[in-house]
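Pasting as-is:
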Amino acid sequence: MSSYDFLAGCYDQLTYDVDYRAWADYIEKHFRQRGLPGRTVLDLACGTGSLTRELAGRGYEMIGVDLSPDMLAEAAEKNHDVNGIPPMFLCQSMDKLDLYGTIDACVCCLDSVNYVISPKKLQKAFERVHLFLMPGGLFLFDINTPEKLMGLDGQMFLDETEDTYCVWRAEYSRRRRVCSYFMDIFRLDEDAGTWKRGEELHEEFAYTPVELEEYLRRAGFTHIRQYGNLKLRPPKPGEDRIFFVARKDK
């Protein structure tokens, strides 16, 4: 089983409830509060490019990076007619990020940081983001908290649409600090009138906020702040999702 090879074609249908406009609104609040040196933004782990498109439509010059060629193919198709400058898409892993120039901000959303299950690779990824940021640039990302991931252990979930059916179960390993999602996905082939079945494994590492702040500092970031889920206040105890915003000093 591999991640996103089969899921890419139905990812948007299964995540229809994600309000990308609200996420973009939240990101822009931080941009306005802290200011950016320019308007070039990296959407790291961009997936199918929904947030990329939302931000591009607001006048940002977008670069989308993702490890999955299948997700990037969906992203390119979705963004081909975007208002403004068409986004650039690159197939890269976070820890080997290699851009053609500098960026003014980097966003990495929907707990994509958790998907880097090697702390050493995540440290390297933070360093690569810092390298390409302009002085004064911002790095914004969110995580699923360890409490949330541990609480998923043993749970099963069902997502379905008219042409997609996904059953997945979660298992948390305290030894590995990893929550594994085992997915069985069924997609309707309308041309053939038959259903196709795929299996995928997704894993998220339970990083603590203290660890992530330390990784950011080691990478050279300053003015590191934590926020509640799509809030402009510090996180409250027991929150499932925490946002981080850090700056590269001028």
